[in-house]
Amino acid sequence: MTASGTVRFNPFDPGFRADPYPHYRALREQAPVHRALGQWVLTRHADVTVVLRDRSTSVGLIPDLVDRQTERLGPAAPVAPGSLARIGRLARTSLVFTDAPGHGRLRALTGRAFGPRTLGALRPRATAAARRLATALRLAGGGDAVADLAAPLPLAVLTDALGLPPALRGDLAAWTHRIRFLLEPGLLTAADLPDVAAALDAFAATLHEVVATRRRDPGEDLLSALAAARTPDGDRLDDEELVLVAIMTFVAGLETTAALLGNGLHALLTHPDQAALLRADPRRLPAAVAELLRFDSPLQLTRRATTREIPLADAVVPGGAQVLLCLGAANRDPEAFDDPDVLDVTRAPTAHLAYGRGLHGCVGAALASLVAEVALHALLVLPGTLRLDGPVSWQEHSRIVRGVARLPVAFR
Ligand code: HEM
Predict the structure, then answer these.
(1) Do residues 97 and 60 lie in contact, with contact meaning Cβ atoms separated by under 8 Å?
(2) Which of 115, 173, 195, 210 is least surrounded, with the fewest CB atoms within 10 Å of its CB?
(3) Superfamily (CATH) of domain 41-411
């Protein structure tokens, strides 16, 4: 049975980009489980959590879609077969698109590299990078907080985390932006495919060189930690896997973390009382970052395919279905959060779903939250008060990531 109602998920609705939350509320209240755009759409926290935790579901639908798209578009595009094959391999080597048992192996080999040791080493350098960018913004009297801080900081931190030269940042950002379309293969066109393939080949060639030097001469960076990782039975990542894992680190981590900084800053600038609470006591920052993730989640949507029936509170999703999980809607569910539309940086820790949940829960969550903490701290301790200084615009290039595109700010 599906809950009936006249509302249907429609991300093309005018106004959805700027504020999807009224639409999500209507869906939660009138059609919390319904079919739209060829999939089952879930908006309640309890239902989304059930599916995220259900180990019978599959994440393999995106690599299948990538294969279908490259088979369909490939013949008409001037792309070498080897490059096309690598696109498919990248999708299939990604943790986020790999089902068990392959997922368990990859997670065992990569999870620890993102752990406290790597983060502990990274924190002082991330703090210094955040201070540099925030100070430059202050000296300029303001600017675009996305172009001047939210975008460059995660790029600097990830480049540093992987031990790659700062001079590569421009290339890394451009390659990542092209390759990100693999997360949303439906948006890929024949005209894009040569650029995507070229970006992936260039990224991989650069990283293969770095991996070869790290194998000989390991450092303290994430790439060296990934190269050294072993499962209990001695399995390890081969060079191509290592390169693809590093590429996916950028694809999964760059624009999401930038969106956390941009959306989080936007939320604080439009709720100055909450920003004042943080300025008065920066020890609140870790809890505040969790609240900002809940309040305006960077990754709004994710997908699963069911392999058997999944009973939910008021409906049953059949086997063989595609399911769209609206994380952004679940994070505003009044059944899960008191006054969900209120930004409250003093909120007790909540079970937000911004980093997912269960087997595929975000491996970079601690890293992304660290970047947000140091960025907000660097801005809050500056003299003067940061204010919005013009109209905000929202990114248009993604259906799954919600991020401020332009955030004009000034110090008063
Ligand atoms: C604010 C920033 C971020 C957000 C909101 C975010 C969100 C998420 C979410 C919701 C998932 C689960 C997807 C699903 O279950 O379908 C996920 C998985 C993942 N994230 Fe993140 N992420 C962020 C930053 C990062 C960073 C910085 C990295 C890498 C350094 C990263 C790497 C990954 C990986 C590898 C997975 C797949 C994990 C698995 O399947 O086992 N993410 N992320």
Answers:
(1) yes
(2) 115
(3) Cytochrome P450 (1.10.630.10)
- Domains of the chain, residue spans: 41-411
Using alpha carbons, list the distances in angstroms from residue 110 to 223, 332, 363: 10, 32, 8
Kindly state if the Cβ of 360 falls inside 6 Å of ligand 1.
Answer: yes
Distance from the alpha carbon of residue 375 to the mean position of ligand 1, in angstroms: 19
The answer to whether 261 touches 154, Cβ cutoff 8 Å, is: yes
Ligand 1 atom nearest to 111, measured from its CA = 41
Residue nearest to atom 30 of ligand 1 (CA): 364
- Quote the tokens at residue 271: 């709720």
Measure CA of the first residue to CA of the last residue in the chain; give whole Å.
56
For residue 314, the cross-strand partners are none
The torsion angles phi and psi of 164, rounded to 5 degrees, stand at: -95, 150
What does each of the 412 residues of the chain score in pLDDT, given as a tens digit?
344 558 999 998 888 999 999 999 999 999 999 999 999 999 999 999 999 999 999 999 888 888 888 888 877 778 888 888 899 889 888 999 999 999 999 999 998 888 888 899 999 999 999 999 999 999 999 999 999 999 999 999 999 999 999 999 999 999 999 998 888 888 888 888 899 999 999 999 999 999 999 999 999 899 999 999 998 889 999 999 999 999 999 999 999 999 999 999 999 999 999 999 999 999 999 999 999 999 999 999 999 999 999 999 999 999 999 999 999 999 999 999 999 999 999 999 889 999 999 999 999 999 999 999 999 999 999 989 999 999 999 999 899 999 999 999 999 8
